[in-house]
Amino acid sequence: MITRRCWLVLVDLSGEVRFRRLVMVQKPQPAATLACIASVLEEMRAFLGTQWQKVLGIGVVMPGPFGVEGISSVGPTTLNGWEQVDIEAELATISGLPVTLENDATVAAIGERFHGTARHLNSFIYLYIGTGLGAGIFTDGHIYTGHAHNAGEIGHIVVEPGGRDCYCGNQGCLERYVSLQAAYEFCGLDPMRALPEDLLQIEPARFTAWIENVTTPLRQAINILESVFDAEAVIIGGMMPAPLLEQMVQRLPPLYQSVRGRYLNDMRLKIGMTGSDTAALGAAALPIFDEFNPKFQVLMK
């Protein structure tokens, strides 16, 4: 049975979290999960009282890709059963508020731009290590989402042809090596039940061995991203526990030569926010984007 976490946070315009709830969902399915969300929204409404009318909207973050046959709902890194659900319409009906949906990596990048390491960066790539692996992309102060909001699905770049089978149908996809799912498998944890903090309990040498196994494909990915986007920095964050993420980043240098090769490693590669707030704070910023600039551009300048 798959265990998923659903965080619901209420954030004011300064980024301060005013209300927070964690809902643990076993094998999340739309009806049960939406009912849980509706219950927590009622808690929020009661907490705010008359101030509820000041709420700008709801930002929702889900793992991508969206609307891609054979990828969007296949495997443990996706939310099976949600592909036919119009989550924006469902939550708008429940709450009476405007709803904006984005993938987890893009939203985490937005959170990093508002609250983290990227506050002073105009062009950066945020590598989001979740159950899978994705990238949030900022270029010249603008968030780049692509034609169908699927830009940054770097987890499905093939880094080892003929390598491990991926749920998308390819072999050797990056997220089969670099992701929480891959770490759970390598470290002997049950991927269907494991949570990120469980990695802190395993033998340190086992996790170190996993890091050694993934440094080469991760360096390849960073090299590709730097060469394509000429970003000021690649920021690595997500749901990996902070002490373990620090170990990963420390072992990545030397990076491959690229258009950013003349810069020091600590300028090219940075550690981002980790834990539940990584995507939650970015999701909470989405209604602000919609309210003040529907194209998500002016506010990011």
From TrEMBL:
EC number in record: 2.7.1.60
Classification via Pfam families: ROK
UniProtKB keywords: Carbohydrate metabolism, Kinase, Transferase
PANTHER family to which the protein is assigned, alphabetical: BIFUNCTIONAL UDP-N-ACETYLGLUCOSAMINE 2-EPIMERASE_N-ACETYLMANNOSAMINE KINASE, ROK (REPRESSOR, ORF, KINASE) FAMILY
Family: Belongs to the ROK (NagC/XylR) family.
Family annotation (InterPro entries): ATPase_NBD, ROK, ROK_cs
Keyword Transferase found: yes
Keyword Kinase assigned: yes
GO molecular function, one term: N-acylmannosamine kinase activity
Protein name: N-acetylmannosamine kinase
Alphabetical list of PROSITE patterns matching this protein: ROK (PS01125)
Naturally occurring in which organism (per UniProt): Enterobacter agglomerans (Erwinia herbicola)
